[in-house]
Amino acid sequence: MNINEAIDITPTVEVETKALAIPEKARLIVVSDNDSMTMADNTKGAIKEMLKEIDGVFKPMADKAFQAHRAITGKWKEVKAPLEEADAYLTKQVKTYLRKLEDIRLEEERRLREVARKQEEERRLADALEAEKEGNVEEAQAILEEEMFVPTPVVKVDVPKVDNRKYRTIPRARCIDKMKLIRFVAQNPALADLLDYNSSVGNNKAKAMGKEINNIPGLSYYEE
Q: Among 54, 86, 118, where does a domain finish?
C-alpha cells in the first residue's frame, strides 16, 4: 500500500447523519399497544440495518488505516535500523577502547604498587640492619615483623571528555557453574539470595558488588 495515500472520511458524514436520526425516533416510542410494539420492532430492524451500513462504510477505511499503519511502522523501523546499528557499533567501539584504557591503568597501578612494595621492603630491611648493627636486635626484629602499608598509587589515563550517559555500562552477572555457586552459598548464609539464582538476582548482585562478584565461585561478571 502507498503510505502517502490519504484516507478519505467524507463518506462518513452521510451515514453519520442518517444514524443520528434513528435514536431520536426510537426514544419517542413507548410500547403500550400492538401498534407501538410493531413500531418498536420495525425500528429495531432499521437499527440493525443501519449498523450494517455503518460497518460497511467504516470497516474498509479501518482496514485501509491498519494497512497504512503497518506500512508506516515498517518503514519507520527500516529507516531507523541503520542508525541504531551504527550507534550500537560506535558504542561498542568506545566501550572497548575505554576497557583497554582501564586495563592499561590497572596494569600500571599494579606495577607501581609492586615498585612501592619492593622499596618499602628494602627500606625496612635497611632499617632493621641498621638497628641490628647498633645492637638493637629486638627493634630490628620488630621492624621486619611490622605490618607493611603500601599506599595505592593513583594512575590517571588521558581520555577525551564525553557524555558518559551515551556509553553507560550495565553490570551483569552470569552463572557459569550452578553447583559451585550452591556449595559456596551453603557456606556463606549472607548470600542466601543467590541460592534461587536467576538473571535478575545475579544482575542486582553485580550492580551492588561490581567485579568483586567474580570472587563468588560459579558467577562471572560482565557488562553491557
A: 86
